[in-house]
């Protein structure tokens, strides 16, 4: 019987792996609600506040640093399943934490699980997706991240309104953190039903299994061609050492992956995500309207991430990042003006909404798509892990130093600093980033061959 392509099967495996983004989004957003109560409960300094929030990033750096090595030995699917279990345990521990130290350790453990998942999810999707829709399917990670952020903002709002402030101080924040058990367990259970990455299977001499998966993804005729291409790519390589990434050609790919990872974080979106209620409170929102304003930002994120899914494979990665980074710079300038002149009310909210929309069609989803695209099969998991380590390191810096910056130099200069970074991002995109739209992973691999002196943009 001839095997035909199953679109629903492709969507299923992309959504299952992409749900790792929900874990990342939940953890990113939930602390913004809990920290409001933790500040008063433990009389936190800005530095300690940053440590609680950024402890998850320390675990994330370690998680992504070893995820590539573990997944090359054990498989993408198994390590993703382990990450779900770790996240669920972390959420339960966070809810039951009896001290600041216990909470920091619990969040560190959660970061380890998210670190595993964040690198491997996008790697897995890139290795399974057909070239013509790889951008859309790769966006699943970012879409689930944004859905996780938005849903968690509304959970925080509901918990904050469920009782008095004293109840929130004693119990409410525990419920916020404890809800993370649910997505962690669901992620683990859903992964049972998806296959292993076909490129991992070929690399480990499980060719017949790889062909079966590729047939369901691409149809029989295309599957055989894809299998031959994967096999040829793997046969050409003699070393899987990360030192290969320092050689001419691949060195450029490695630098591009690192810069994409850094700009995903340092442009300032997570400053809003982590400290949304605090920022809106400084803009004059109070009586839980700061939680409502933060929830509206989450809704904007979902809407424009969906828009990005339909644009990425049509407009292209490079064009969207250029447009988005320039708009983000403009809106960051406006947010700084709101702080500088102490403008209260709707203008600050609208400016942050505009910045969020620009981020979600550009530097939000696209780095997660391009980073696994640009590396060859035999080094992809390790290279994505290294790139994502820089992403998590930048994430740590944003979580740790944003409250200190706002406290020491003020909101205006903090957001103007982000505006400058967005402008630098625009220059980087226009001068260095290649277009990878509609290219197979093996075609993209040829861009970095040492003999290639020029890149077609």
TrEMBL record:
InterPro entries: MFS_dom (IPR020846), MFS_sugar_transport-like (IPR005828), MFS_trans_sf (IPR036259), Myo-inositol_Transporter (IPR050814), Sugar/inositol_transpt (IPR003663), Sugar_transporter_CS (IPR005829)
KW Transport (keyword) present: yes
Residues annotated as domain Major facilitator superfamily (MFS) profile: 13-437
Keywords from the UniProt entry: Membrane, Transmembrane, Transmembrane helix, Transport
UniProt subcellular location: Cell membrane
Transport among keywords: yes
Domain of life: Bacteria
Pfam families: Sugar_tr (PF00083)
Transmembrane segments: 7-26, 46-67, 79-98, 104-126, 138-155, 175-194, 253-272, 292-313, 320-341, 347-371, 383-401, 413-433
Membrane protein topology class: Multi-pass membrane protein
Family, as annotated: Belongs to the major facilitator superfamily. Sugar transporter (TC 2.A.1.1) family.
PANTHER family per UniProt: PROTON MYO-INOSITOL COTRANSPORTER
Protein name: Sugar porter family MFS transporter
């Amino acid at each position: 019987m001839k095997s035909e392509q199953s679109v629903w099967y492709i969507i299923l495996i992309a959504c299952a792996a992409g749900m790792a983004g929900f874990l990342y989004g939940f953890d990113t957003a939930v602390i913004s609600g809990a920290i409001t109560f933790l500040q008063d409960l433990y009389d936190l300094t800005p530095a300690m506040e940053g440590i609680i929030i950024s402890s998850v990033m320390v675990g994330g750096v370690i998680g992504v640093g070893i995820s590539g090595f573990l997944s090359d030995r054990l498989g993408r699917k198994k390590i993703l399943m382990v990450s779900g279990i770790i996240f669920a345990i972390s959420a339960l521990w966070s809810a039951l934490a009896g001290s600041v130290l216990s909470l920091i350790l619990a969040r560190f453990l959660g970061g380890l699980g998210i670190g595993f998942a964040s690198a491997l999810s996008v790697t897995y999707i890139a290795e399974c997706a057909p070239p013509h829709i790889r951008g859309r399917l790769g966006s699943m990670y970012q879409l689930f991240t944004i859905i996780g952020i938005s849903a968690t903002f509304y959970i925080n709002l509901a918990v904050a309104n469920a009782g008095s402030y004293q109840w929130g101080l004693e119990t409410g924040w525990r419920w916020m953190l404890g809800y993370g058990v649910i997505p962690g367990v669901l992620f683990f259970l859903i992964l049972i039903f998806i296959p292993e990455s076909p490129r991992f299977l070929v690399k480990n001499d499980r060719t017949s299994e790889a062909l079966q998966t590729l047939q369901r993804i691409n149809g029989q005729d295309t599957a055989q061609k894809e299998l031959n291409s994967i096999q040829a790519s793997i046969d050409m390589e003699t070393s899987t050492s990360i030192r290969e990434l320092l050689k001419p050609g691949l060195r450029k790919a490695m630098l591009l992956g690192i810069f994409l990872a850094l700009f995903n974080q340092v442009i300032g979106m997570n400053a809003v995500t982590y400290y949304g209620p605090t920022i809106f409170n400084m803009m004059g929102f109070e009586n839980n309207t700061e939680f409502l304003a933060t929830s509206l930002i989450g809704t904007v994120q979902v809407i424009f991430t969906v828009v990005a899914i339909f644009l990425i494979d049509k407009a292209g990665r490079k064009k969207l990042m250029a447009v988005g980074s320039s708009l983000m710079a403009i809106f960051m300038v406006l947010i700084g003006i709101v702080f500088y002149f102490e403008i209260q009310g709707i203008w600050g909210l609208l400016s942050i909404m505009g910045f969020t929309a620009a981020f979600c069609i550009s530097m939000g989803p696209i780095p997660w798509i391009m980073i696994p695209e640009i590396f060859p099969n035999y080094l992809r998991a390790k290279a994505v892990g290294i790139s994502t380590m820089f992403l998590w390191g930048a994430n740590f810096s944003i979580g740790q130093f944003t409250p200190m910056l706002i406290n020491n130099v003020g909101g205006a200069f903090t957001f103007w600093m982000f505006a400058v970074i967005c402008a630098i991002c625009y220059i980087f995109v226009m001068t260095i980033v290649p277009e990878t739209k509609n290219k197979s992973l093996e075609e993209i691999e040829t861009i970095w061959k040492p003999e290639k002196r020029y890149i077609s943009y």
